[in-house]
TrEMBL record:
It comes from Halanaerobium kushneri. The chain crosses the membrane at residues 69-90, 102-121. This is Positive regulator of sigma(E), RseC/MucC. InterPro entries: RseC (IPR026268), SigmaE_reg_RseC_MucC (IPR007359). Keywords: Membrane, Transmembrane, Transmembrane helix.
C-alpha cells in the first residue's frame, strides 16, 4: 500500500509526516445529503524512520508491505469475532460442567468476557507490532 505524505518535522533519523485522507466523496462538488460529513478531509500524523534524508516540507511516498497490512487487518477484525464465538461455547461448556441451569446466559457472559480479552490482546499485539520494522511504513522516495 502506498500513500503520499508531507514531512512536517525532522528529528534526527525520524521524521513526522502528515497524510491527508480523502473520503470517496471528497472530490465531488455536489452538496448531497447522502454524503453527510464525508466531504471533509482527515489528517493522520505518523513518525517514520528517515533512511533517504528528507527535509521538512518534502512530499514523500510512503509504503507498507501488503502482506503485513493484510495480516494486521485480519488480526484486528477477526480476532474479536473468533474469540467472541469461542467465548460463547466456553461459557456454555463451563455452565454445563458446573450444572448451571442457564447455559445460554453463561454463553453470553463468556462472549463478553472473551470480547474484552480480544481487545486486550489487540492492544498487546499492537505494541508488539509497533516495534517490528516490517510493520512500519517506509519512505520510498521524495516526490516534488
Amino acid at each position: 500500500m502506498e500513500e503520499l505524505a508531507t514531512v512536517v518535522q525532522k528529528n534526527n533519523d525520524k521524521v513526522e509526516v502528515r497524510i491527508i485522507k480523502h473520503s470517496a466523496c471528497s472530490k465531488c462538488d455536489k452538496n448531497c445529503g447522502l454524503a453527510g460529513n464525508s466531504h471533509d478531509q482527515d489528517q493522520v500524523f505518523l513518525e517514520v524512520e528517515d533512511k533517504i534524508g528528507v527535509k521538512k516540507g518534502d512530499r514523500v511516498l510512503l509504503e507498507m508491505e501488503k502482506g503485513n497490512l493484510v495480516f494486521a487487518t485480519l488480526i484486528v477484525y477477526l480476532l474479536p469475532i473468533f474469540l467472541m464465538i469461542s467465548g460463547y461455547f466456553f461459557g456454555s461448556w463451563v455452565a454445563a460442567i458446573l450444572n448451571i441451569k442457564s447455559v445460554e446466559l453463561a454463553g453470553i457472559a463468556g462472549t463478553f468476557i472473551f470480547l474484552i480479552i480480544s481487545f486486550l490482546l489487540n492492544k498487546i499485539l499492537n505494541s508488539y507490532f509497533e516495534k517490528i520494522s516490517s510493520f512500519q511504513p517506509t519512505i520510498k522516495r521524495v516526490i516534488n
